Amino acid sequence: MGCNILICDDSAMARNQLARSLPTDIGAQVSFATNGKEALTALEHGNIEILFLDLTMPVMDGYDTLEAIQRKGLSCQVIVVSGDIQPQAQKRVSQLGAKGFVQKPASAQTLATILGTLGVARAPSRPPHQEGQQARNLAQQFVEKTDYIDAYREITNVAIGRAADLLARLLGVFVRMPLPKVNLMEVSELQMALGYSSRHQACSAICQGFIGAGIAGEALLIFHDDGYRDLARQMGYEETTGDDTRIEVLMDVANILIGACLKGLETQLDLTFSQSHPRVLGLHLNVDELLRINPRSRWKKTLAIEVTLSTEGMDIECDLLLLYSEQSVAFLNERIAYLVE
After folding, report:
1. Tens-place pLDDT, residues 173-197
2. What domains can be seen in the chain, in order of their start residue?
3. How many CA atoms lie within 13 A of 222 on its CB side?
4. What's residue 211's pLDDT?
């Protein structure tokens, strides 16, 4: 008899990728949930044996879901599949009862190995042509039905996970990593669309351009000045005053975050970006002033992807924006479609 598997992830792209990567010889009956609340309902009313659980989700995230599974005494083996690969994230989910942790995007070999360690029985495999047809059907369903905004959010989430992991290791803290916000808008609307808690808060910013395979964009890293002293001290700077030191600190962090994020995108999309030298966009300015300095007048529209990273126990906070030209969207869509072929 087959294994009952529940895949819980807010991203349709991630759910389809994981389902397509499951071994075909375990006779799995696969169902889906888009957040932890839906997953708990399925666990309470169904015979779910294995739950593949994302961490960063709306409504109820993976941590709260694991806590609820323990509290309710639900019988299920949980494997966390996440782009948030910080050591503390892996430690936390293990303490909450997860049987394994898999980095996104999960490979077929990794899933087969971890399912084997959980004692999932293998059955005679189906003929190869049937397996190939099932994969093609799932791919076609994704291309036809998936909102590409969801896909942009998912590939960025995985890429940001790499950046957050490096920042967490550098600072020795846990980095909160919410879901990216995605908007396709007129460039003139960018200032109004960004979700900052205080539009008049003093900030400093680093900007870096990138281009490759028909995709052109800019990465903009905005640091909130209130957290600068904590940031510098965690990086070992004894002297935190003066703009020269500030620029050095911000450049170091920008190289880590932007570099890791772009590398994550390169790996997923199978391309290589050429990058310009990072430059200081401005110091001690509010967000509106920073964006006016870098107007991108050559673009009419932009695909803007924003994520806010913050640390537990400190005031360190920064906003990473990936701004793509309007012409880049078609090339991004082609690459995303290629991911599920």
Report:
1. 999 999 999 998 887 777 666 654 4
2. 4-138 (3.40.50.2300), 148-339 (3.40.1550.10)
3. 25
4. 97
